[in-house]
Write the structure tokens for this entry.
Amino acid sequence: MQAALGIVSELWRYPASSLAGERRETISVDIESIKGDRMFGLVDKSDNEIARPDRDAKWHKVPRIRTRLSPALELEIAVPEGDWLAAPSIESDRAVSAYLGFEASIRPFRRENAAPGYSGPLTAERYRKAPIHLLTTASLARLKALHPEGATDPRPFRPNLFVA
């Protein structure tokens, strides 16, 4: 029998791209992706630019916005120090806009991702995502060796599976 190369130590789902995800005990994987993963995006209402916290300072606070899915797979968000709000909605957009300091809106990538009755706009994904994002402690160790003063927190990488 072959020795284990690693053990999955954390499972994550990110209902909205660039926003904080939710740690899970289990995840459901279908043919396309992890069920409930990266179904929504956050845009600047003035130009419909999708959030890019890795490249633009105006988006740097976005990863602190928490997300979760209800049992019916409907999105809920919470800005720091805020309550959970159904999203997309006027209330969630108002909370996110106040937190970021400019008009922003959470939008589904596809109509089937939205709650029943949602008739608002959609947004486009920035890129075609991989079905599952896996990160290992070995990868983080190599990154630390290449960049000793850098942080090696796995959260900014937004992995679905973190392998120790």
Summary: The mean pLDDT is 91. The first helix runs from residue 90 to 100. The CA atoms of residues 47 and 161 lie 34 Å apart. The helical segments are 90-100, 137-146.
